[in-house]
Write a structure and sequence with these properties.
It comes from Paenibacillus herberti. This is Sporulation protein SpoOM. Pfam families: Spo0M. The chain contains five helices and 13 strands. By secondary structure, the protein is an alpha+beta fold. The strands form three sheets. Strands 3, 4, 5, 7 and 8 form a five-stranded antiparallel beta sheet that branches. A five-stranded antiparallel beta sheet has the order 9-10-11-12-13. The chain has a three-stranded antiparallel beta sheet with strand order 1-2-6, with no helix packed on it. A hairpin with a 5-residue loop joins strand 7 and strand 8 (about 130-135). Helix 2 (about 140-150) packs across helix 5 (about 240-250). The termini are far apart.
């Protein structure tokens, strides 16, 4: 009987189960916030050796493979919570933790999702796991920039995470915001694409301005201009009007 139970447990039937409980407010969390929580491990029908418990902050992104766009998952951060231990049959173990979201965690807008994945590494058996999705709001400094872009008369058309293998910003996953003007105030501007990478005290911005030019300019690829710049916290905190004006000056310099 013991052999049969062990065999079934190795197939995931009657094996240990894991449940992660996050203390997350309904309003959501922001990059840099620390999420408290606990992991509950419930033993199955037989005793099992657990090699470790790992928490991962996950997101998905778009990657081009052979000229085809595919969606893949990526771990933004990892937290090793517990080393090897044994969980007895029917036994219950609880482990508390504090999990800090990286500053470059994307917001949950458009098709972007962020979740906490719990991985229970069980010896000679199928690993147990648990996925807990969370709502991520913009970093406070990024939120100020988004408000300024809105103030200029742009609306968000698309938000998407993309793979950037050679990014110099410490993460291969960059979240791109695509804006279009709500009015004709920006004339020939077709769309505005921006990426925000917040850090302590500043935000790095990658901006691409696409112009409605057509003809030879479009054929030559000269209807697009890209730049990168840094906005310090003091510049961002000056207020929506001042920040909007600074952004407008940068945008118009490429029109």
């Amino acid at each position: 009987m013991s052999f049969f139970k062990n065999m079934m447990a190795s197939m995931g039937i009657g094996a240990a189960q894991v449940d992660t409980v996050l203390e997350v407010p309904n309003s959501g969390v922001r990059p840099g916030d620390t999420i408290p929580g606990r992991i509950v491990v419930s033993g199955g029908s037989v005793a099992q050796q657990v090699n470790g418990i790992e928490l991962l902050i996950m997101t998905s992104y778009i990657k081009e493979v052979n000229d085809t766009k595919v969606r893949e998952n990526a771990a933004l951060a990892r937290l090793q919570l517990r080393e090897s231990f044994e969980i007895g049959a029917g036994q219950r173990e609880e482990f508390e933790f504090d999990l800090t979201l990286p500053l470059f965690t994307p917001i949950t807008a458009g098709g972007t999702q962020v979740w906490v994945k719990t991985s229970l590494d069980i010896a000679s058996a199928l690993d147990a796991g648990d996925n807990d999705y969370i709502k991520v709001l913009p970093h406070p400094l990024v939120e100020e920039i988004l408000n300024a872009v809105d103030h200029l008369g742009f609306r968000t058309r698309e938000v998407e995470c993309k793979y950037a293998a050679h990014s110099r910003f410490g993460t291969p996953i960059l979240q791109e915001f695509e804006f279009v003007p709500r009015t004709r105030n920006f004339g020939r501007l077709d769309e505005l694409e921006m990426v925000f990478i917040p850090s302590e005290g500043y935000v790095d911005v990658i901006m691409e301005v696409d112009r409605r030019s057509g003809g030879f300019s479009e054929w030559l690829g000269t209807d697009e201009s890209r730049t990168a710049f840094r906005l310090n916290e003091s510049e961002i905190r000056r207020g929506t009007d001042a920040l909007s004006q600074a952004l407008e000056n940068k945008i118009r310099s490429f029109m």
